[in-house]
Design goal:
six-stranded antiparallel beta sheet, four-stranded mixed beta sheet, alpha+beta, about 400 residues, Beta-lactamase, 13 helices, about 15% strand
Length: about 400
Amino acid sequence: MTVEGTCADEFAEVRAEFERNFAERGEVGGGVHVTVDGETVVDLWGGDAGGRPWTEDTITHVWSCTKGATALCAHVLASRGELDLDAPVVRYWPEYGQNGKDGTLVRHLLAHQAGLPAVREPVPPGGMFDWELMTDLLARQEPFWAPGTRHGYHALTFGYLIGEVVRRVAGASLAEFFEKEVSGPLGLDFWLSLPEDLEPLVAPTIPAERGEAVPTMYLAAVTRRESMQALLVANSGGYVAASNTREAHAAQYGAVGGMSNARGLAQMYRPLALGGEYNGVRLVDEARVPVMSAVVTAGFDAMLLAPSRFSAGFMKSVDNHYLPAADRGVVLSEDAFGHSGMGGSLGFAAPASRLSFGYVMTKMGPGVGVNERGQSLVDAVYRALGHRQAPGGLWFR
């Protein structure tokens, strides 16, 4: 297998770890992209993309990395003064205030504190592709906990909750807003609704192998039939099974439906690593970036059943090294914020280092965080920047 692309000499270890992923860690196809001070220092790809070579233009399903794009849309509006994260959701979405949710704040939606990590009413086959159906279901549902009192990963509902607020404020769908305000101006290979003519560029997802480590969340779904975890897994309208279809790629699914590549992920975060602006395109004002990075909630996650940390819309570094591999998070510097995707993809910004990073792959690994393939690339980047890792902790200079 030949790795193609470019890599600055000082980041040679990143290339070595990427090649090692293919040789030793079961990588099938993927890419990694890194920018520092706005300049691309790593742009590598290789492997198989569904029976054909992975090329510079190949894209794939980035799963929950999509949440970073969706959260960014909310922060673009907040930076412009059009959306107040501390306002009640009902200010923008009046129907949401049913069944004890009238006090829910926009910040609660972003930080997975809204109490709606799963849907109680049956979702029909393909229902997750119906925006109005899903937002209506969520608007009338009673939360699993009082909003703001705890957090639990909103794996499949996050995109509808934030996306509907964006739609109400901006007067455009989430996908339209993202294209107009983010991906279009930055020239990103990133879509929240993939145009049909780009379908030939898609490398299909390969599920994790059976017998690999299983996250505690999924074990709970099997053993506790009435749990939130069981509802998440069994009441998704069949999305996971349909995720490699044209219908799924075209659908607007702001939690897990994004289509991109490593370059698209890293370059979306590039302005955020540089104070909110890159090459004349300002996404957010400079004062907004620390807000995007600041931890809002941390501790035991009611859905994942393991520790997690979130800012307003983004994952933060969490080192669950003492847990089984399937429950581990991702180790980053404390300033970093971004999002991983099911199977191991990752995108983030680290403003203190003026760094942005993207990694995607087709062969999914076990667990809900970033597995050895992605973490090895992150570690190599930080080492190249002169960072050290505290024992069992974060990266620092």
